[in-house]
Write a structure and sequence with these properties.
Elements: H1 30-33, E1 37-52, E2 58-74, E3 78-82, H2 89-96, E4 104-109, E5 112-113, H3 119-126, E6 129-132, H4 136-139, H5 146-156, H6 164-176, H7 192-204, E7 210-214, H8 222-239, E8 242-247, H9 250-254, E9 259-264, E10 267-273, H10 274-279, H11 284-291, H12 298-303, E11 345-346, E12 357-358, H13 363-368, H14 383-392
Parallel strand pairs: 3-8, 3-9, 6-7, 7-8
Antiparallel strand pairs: 1-2, 1-4, 4-5, 9-10, 10-12, 11-12
Helix pairs in contact: 6-7, 7-8
The structure holds adenosine-5'-diphosphate (ADP), iron/sulfur cluster (SF4) and magnesium ion (MG).
Length: 404
């Protein structure tokens, strides 16, 4: 679903000054704005078959978990990917790392088409792409001590020999703020926040270029969330890391992200530099998500826009036609919305930089106030489709060991 009118960041090797969007400013640090693209996903689709039948495994439909994602992440950048639970964020993260088979599309990492790598070559490239999970307890082998967990990946990739291991382990623990005594402990002996530090050390142990952090703080107490986010930020500077941070909560990615992509039912509906997106969300879905984030100032809280999202996320096994958001959109129009799927495009709105792209047919008219929101009638989703998704949604558990 590439849109030829949309400006894309430069690919690896493309360093022409005009290749990057955003002539009109935006908050993205120049350091990452001008850097080359490390991850380049084009037209990525992951569809899971829905099987039925006792004797014959008949495919009766598909879950369109990821359905046309174009996304680039520059070296040293933090890209925040947000959207409601079930919209395909984790599947996309796994697809980037080739842990999920692509139904369509391509992922280039550091200029290399990952689909062209098989066996040992893919395993070696995986070293450069690590994952941090929501629940480290579920992804770390409970029978291994922290020392064993950290050494496992390093040994698999021949990163340590003899005495160097002790030095490297000490470095890793220091980097994530854990005491040396942590080495002899098992994952269950730590608190949630400390365990996440172990998970991060595990990812760092193989010296990766990219870390996909999938809901890294969702399972943590609010008081600990900021510490872990700050740790990720510090490590990025220290180790020149590139991040894809996945979250269902816009507040979590706000302060860590250079750019943010908002996902709805398998594809991006808006993408912008983080400050631009938070200052002026343009897609109706982003506006609704943003209006649900509380503002500390009571004066602003009382006057700000409140958009309640009607109904649940439709089933990805039976996505709505046209704009996938049309069943819940307060600005839905009688033309285009339910017949044509909008592409992510640069909009013609004063003061909006080309780096802010929106997948809505009516973005300009909504921004100008020419179109006003209306009440949304909740459409009932087909319960049989919903059932088939839940029955077959056997998300394979991912463990840190899958990445070594
Ligand atoms: N292995 C799988 N088989 C079938 N359906 C799956 C599988 N993995 C995920 N799904 C479905 O794909 C959709 C997107 O899931 P996911 O990527 O986990 O969303 P998110 O991370 O945004 O919550 C969901 O409907 C989920 O049930
Ligand atoms: S295209 Fe139509 S339904 Fe979709 S977000 Fe825009 S106004 Fe709403
Ligand atoms: Mg998820």
């Amino acid at each position: 679903m590439s849109d030829t009118t949309s400006e894309q960041p430069a690919r690896s090797g493309d360093t022409t000054p005009g290749a990057l969007a955003d002539e009109q400013g935006g908050a993205l640090a120049t350091t990452t704005r001008d850097r080359e693209v490390l991850v380049d996903a084009q037209g990525v689709k992951v569809h899971f078959p829905i099987k039925r039948g006792v004797i014959f495994d008949k495919t009766v439909g598909h879950v369109y978990a990821v359905d046309g994602m174009d996304l680039q992440i520059r070296q040293g950048e933090t890209y925040g990917l947000v959207g409601e639970s079930g919209c395909g964020k984790s599947t996309f993260g796994r697809a980037l790392l080739q842990l999920e088979e692509l139904t369509a599309g391509k992922v280039h990492f550091d200029g290399v088409d990952l689909a062209s790598l098989k066996g040992e070559k893919l395993r070696r490239e995986r070293k450069n792409m690590q994952m941090v999970f929501q629940d480290p307890l579920g992804s770390l082998d409970p029978r291994q001590t922290v020392e064993q967990l950290l050494l496992e990946g390093m040994r698999a990739h021949n990163l340590v020999k003899g005495g160097a291991a002790t030095e490297r382990l000490a470095e890793l623990l220091k980097a994530v703020g854990l005491p040396r005594s942590a080495l002899n402990k098992y994952p269950h002996e730590f608190s949630g926040g400390q365990r996440q530090r172990v998970g991060i050390a595990r990812a760092l142990s193989v010296d990766p270029k990219l870390i996909v952090a999938d809901e890294p703080v969702s399972a943590l107490d609010v008081s600990v969330q900021a510490q872990v986010i700050n740790l990720l930020k510090d490590l990025q500077d220290e180790f020149d890391l590139t991040y894809l941070v996945i979250a269902h909560d816009l507040a979590v990615v706000r302060h860590i992200s250079d750019r943010v992509g908002v996902m709805y039912l398998g594809s991006l509906v808006e993408e912008a530099d983080a400050d631009d997106l938070y200052d002026r969300p343009l897609h109706p879905y982003t506006r609704a998500l943003m209006s649900a984030v509380p503002v500390p100032d009571p004066k602003i809280e009382d006057t700000r826009e409140q958009i309640l999202l009607a109904g649940d996320l439709p089933s990805p096994a039976n996505p709505p036609s046209g704009c996938r958001f049309h069943t819940r959109c307060p600005w839905r129009q009688e033309t285009l919305c339910d017949t044509e799927r909008p592409q992510l495009r640069v909009v013609q709105i004063d003061g909006v930089p080309a780096s802010q792209r929106v997948a809505c047919h009516w973005a300009e008219q909504i921004a100008s106030g020419e179109l006003q929101p209306h009440k949304v009638e909740i459409e009932l989703t087909d319960p049989s489709a919903q059932q088939s998704v839940t029955a077959d949604a056997t998300e394979p558990p991912t463990s840190a060991a899958d990445l070594t």
